[in-house]
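target protein:
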Amino acid sequence: MNLLLIGPPGAGKGTQAVRLRDRLGIAHLSAGDMLREEVRLATPLGRAAQVTMERGELVPDDLVGKMVEGRLELPECSPGFVLDGYPRNLAQADRLARYLGGKGRRLDRVLVIQVPTEELLGRLTGRRVCGGCGAGYHVRHQPPRAEGTCDRCGGSLLQRKDDGEGVVRGRLQVYESQTRPLLEHYRGSGLLREIDGLGTLDEVTGRIAGALEEAGG
């Protein structure tokens, strides 16, 4: 089964993608993880992407497309895949469709996890990390025993710059302007299923399973 998982930052795509991987025995391809790995390995693609990211710009569609297509060629993707974080815009969606069509493949289902903006802000801005040992916390969902202090090492808990409200709102705005148009694109093809992202992880997983049963998954 070939799946696409869409959702705003903080919707829980990564966690649900891993669960889909384990349940269905398919590959999980996270565009963000792939980019970071290419940069770490200093591949030609990674070096080109790093220059762009260091300028604070989005990685060009062509670079990301080549990276994803390269991973889709691997044997591990033969039984199927769940794509997380790609495509992010209509141009990338068109490229993916052309690539899959050329290989005699297609998407079986596109799942979008929907979460209200205020809930997303709470999830993302509430994250804290220990400056000493790197342990993660959340002021609402996983608070430390003593406010601002790591349970493990006693270090001070910090909020990453990326989790500041201004940055988070900016990321959500990018999603609205660039990625949300994909919903109508895939709805028109009959592939789209909307998933309520509120509730426990198991509740969201159950809703996803129900959507896949409609597709014979």
